[in-house]
Design brief:
11 helices; alpha/beta; 285 residues; two-stranded antiparallel sheet; 5-stranded mixed sheet
Length: 285
Amino acid sequence: MKPRAAIYCRISESDLHVDKPENQLRDCKRLCDEAGYEVVATYRDDGVSAYKKGVVRPQYERMKEELAAGAFDVLVAVAQDRLTREKWEPYLLAQTCDEHGVRWHTVAEGVIDFETDTMGGVRVGFTGSQNTAESQNKSRRATAANAHRRAAGLPISGPRPFGFEVDRIRHRQDEADEIRWAYSVILGGGSLYAVLKEWNARGVLPSTQADAPDALARLSTEISRREEIGLAVTPAMEKRRARLAMLAEEPPGWSYATLQQLLRRARNAALVEYDGQVMDDVIAA
């Protein structure tokens, strides 16, 4: 009887140098063929970090549950860092595998059998420490990359600003026109309150409120999917769903403070601001 193998594939949004899950799956299936394993399950988390705290990997959680239920004998991946980069998580997963007689087999590191390999835990820990260090280096590289983006006038990640599309570069024309109108009112001697009253009367909403229905639909789909596969819905997800539902049903509109912040925003004048200061000689993209 062939050993039963489960394949786990993952890529986070920033891991552009790592093979896409479909390529990882291909390499893992080739490994299973060569090793004589029968593939009985595959798990795939696409665009999910294994390092950021609080990030849930649905397929990883499902894999652990089915591992504990005895669904397979070998856990296969292209490398250990596809399973986890957290400091302690490799030990916890290794302990679970040891308890249930499941060995690891990765394309990069080979076979680790926790029942027969006395150095298996050491190898896992050493590799995990290397992966944690690499993730910390990635964080530092991301900070440096953001600095370069600012210097080039390019936006960094974050919520969609009012007046812009999700890429934070292209204008959302109807909102951009509203900003121009607001400035014309102020420059013509009008007040912020006049703009505030007009926008709220016409239902012109801040971007977070305008986007709430779509965000609520995406989150509700994710929660339903988690419930279908038996994963817990976190309190943070429930809290976010309740907030989005409130915004979608009865959006509060603009306040004096949010409107003032918008009209003082440097990007409206194609300027780049960092830490409260406009960066000289940098023009926003």
